[in-house]
Amino acid sequence: xxxxxxxxxxxxxxxxxxxxxxxxxxxxxxxxxxxxxxxxxxxxxxxxxxxxxxxxxxxxxxxxxxxxxxxxxxxxxxxxxxxxxxxxxxxxxxxxxxxxxxxxxxxxxxxxxxxxxxxxxxxxxxxxxxxxxxxxxxxxxxxxxxxxxxxxxxxxxxxxxxxxxxxxxxxxxxxxxxxxxxxxxxxxxxxxxxxxxxxxxxxxxxxxxxxxxxxxxxxxxxxxxxxxxxxxxxxxxxxxxxxxxxxxxxxxxxxxxxxxxxxxxxxxxxxxxxxxxxxxxxxxxxxxxxxxxxxxxxxxxxxxxxxxxxxxxxxxxxxxxxxxxxx
Length: 327
Prior knowledge:
four-stranded antiparallel sheet; alpha+beta; 8 helices; 3 domains; elongated; Serine Threonine Protein Phosphatase 5, Tetratricopeptide repeat; three-stranded mixed sheet; about 55% helix; Immunoglobulin-like; about 325 residues
C-alpha cells in the first residue's frame, strides 16, 4: 500500500505533463526526427541536450520507446523522481501492449532508482477548510500532507494561501540521495497582520540520517585544503632532502679545500630559502584545513554556540597559524 501511494503521488506531476501532451497537436514526423536526434545525443554522452528533444518528441507523438529513452535521460541528469515514475509508466504501457521483456527491464530500472529517491514532506500546522497548498505551482492535496513524497533534487517552492489571510511561501533545497526534507507551513496570518511570506528565506535542508551532515561545498573546501597541505608538505620534504645533499656536498668540498665550489653553496642557499617558504606555507595550509574541518563539522550548530577563528603567528625564527575559539 505504501509503494502504491508513492507511485500515485509521483505520478501526479507526470500526469499533468501527460495531460498537456494530449492537448498538443500531433506531429508524428517531427516526433520521430526529434526522437532520433535525442537518442544520438544520448549515445554521445550529452543527456543535457538530449532530454529536451525527447520531451518534445513525447508531446508530439507518444511512444513507449520515446518515454523509456526520456526516463533514461532524466536519470542521467539527476531527475531521479521523474525518471522513476517514467520507468513505471513505461512498464504499465508495455504490459498493456504485451511487451513482457520491455516491461521487466523498465520495472528493474525503477526498482534500482527507488532507494536513491529524495522525498519532500509538507506539514501543515493549522489546516483551515479553504487552505490551498501548492508545490512548484501544482496543487498539493490534503491526503499528501505529512507524507514524504518523491521529488527531483533541486529547489522547490512550497506555497499556501487562504481567503483573508496573508499568502505564505518558502524555497526548499532538496539534495540528491536518500534524504527526507521537511517543511512546516505555519498558521497563516490575518490579512491585516505582518506578512507571513518567507519566499526570500534561505533555502533550508533537513536531511534524514542517511544523508551527509554539513554543507557539500564546505566538505569540498576541506578536501581541497587537505590536498593542498599534502602537496606543500611533500614539496617541503623533497626540497629539504635536496638542501641537505647540497649542503653536505659543499661542506665536504670546503673541508677538502677544493676550489671553485661556490656553486654548491649558492644552490644550498636557494634550496634552503625554498624549503623555508614551503614549510611556512604548509603550516598555514594545515591551519586553514583545520579551520575548514571544524567549520564544516559544526555547520548545523547555532552560530551563537560556536566561534572559531584562524590567526597567523610569526616570530624571528618561525611562521605558522593558530586556530582558536569555542566549539
